[in-house]
Amino acid sequence: MKTIGLIGGLSWVSTVEYYRLLNEMINARLGDLHSAKILLYSVDFNEIRDLTFQGDWKGISDRMGAIARNLEKAGADCLLLGANTMHKIAADVQAQIGIPLLHIADAAGAAINKMNLSSVALLGTRYTMEDGFYQASLSGKGIETLIPEEADRAFVHDAIYRELGKNIFLPQTKARMLGIISKMTGQGAQGIVLGCTEIPMLVKPADCTTILIDTMEVHAAAAVEFALQEG
Q: How far apart are CA 128 and CA 33, in angstroms?
């Protein structure tokens, strides 16, 4: 079994879920007392949040790259950035290491293609929804990406930083999120990419009839596939 390197703390709330999913998936495949081999580096998300709000993506890339190099030196065979937004600088981090960085949008795109969907809506931080890196990845797989209107984008973005990243999941926030999902479905989205690793902890498949793509789950599954490959 290969060792998975995970940069977590982005936020700690979803990192707990990453750890659980990776271990559950490995155990489901191998049985007995098997669990995943994981090297985890957990950052102080407040520091990363501040750099993000300042638009200092080079500063973030430098920090993530240094952590990634340390995980590689420690024995990681692949790398996961445990947040959708951080994949804005994924190519920069990949250029600093010799192990593969498993891109969360690639994993989402593969899942969407498997479902034979051609149009999806993307929910996440402003950076994920507006900066184009996610759309570019999905477009390369023949997938059209819709994003909510400005007021809804602002709501989703603020909910992530003010509530979900603090382990706060309010019923009124869930109701508004489901309303946005319904609106995007009405605009032609065949599925909804939950492009923030905390959103699947708020909105579950049982909450609506629209297909939901849980990016944390498909990202973890991609890592497990890599870890169990021979050679």
A: 37
CB 14 within 8 A of CB 202: no
Residues pairing with 119 in the sheet: 144
Q: What pTM did the predictor assign?
A: 0.96
Q: What's the rounded Cα separation, in Å, for the pair 185 and 211?
A: 10
> Rounded to 10 degrees, what is the CA torsion of 222, 130, 66, 99?
30
> How long, in residues, is the chain?
231
pLDDT band of 230, cuts 50, 70, 90: confident
Model pLDDT, residue 119:
98
Structure token pair of residue 177: 């999120």
Are 129 and 149 spatial neighbours (Cβ–Cβ below 8 Å)? no
Phi, psi of 33 (to 5 degrees): -105, 25
The pLDDT of residue 125 is 98
Phi, psi (rounded to 5 degrees) for 196:
-145, 130
